[in-house]
Amino acid sequence: MVSAAGGGRVLADQDVCVGAGQCARVAPGVFDQADDGLVVLLVRDVPAGEVDAVLDAVDRCPSGAVRLGAPAGGPY
């Protein structure tokens, strides 16, 4: 789980992405968009200073392509 200290892992499914760009808009340090508009991850592990922005991006993603997973080496 993601905490205020960071440590969660960002997951992005380009097969599900619709190119809305909400993730890149609210968390530009973590997400970008390819030329075709699909999500591109800039980092896999959520930096502590980006936790709130990544949670906002997950909430705003209209297709559900952006998710959070367990930290690297985590129990789930």
From TrEMBL:
Keywords: 3Fe-4S, Electron transport, Iron, Iron-sulfur, Metal-binding, Transport
Superkingdom of origin organism: Bacteria
Domain 4Fe-4S ferredoxin-type: 8-36
Name of a matching Pfam family: Fer4_19
Cofactor(s), by name: [3Fe-4S] cluster
Function: Ferredoxins are iron-sulfur proteins that transfer electrons in a wide variety of metabolic reactions.
PANTHER family linked: FERREDOXIN
This protein's name: Ferredoxin
Classification lineage: Bacteria, Bacillati, Actinomycetota, Actinomycetes, Micrococcales
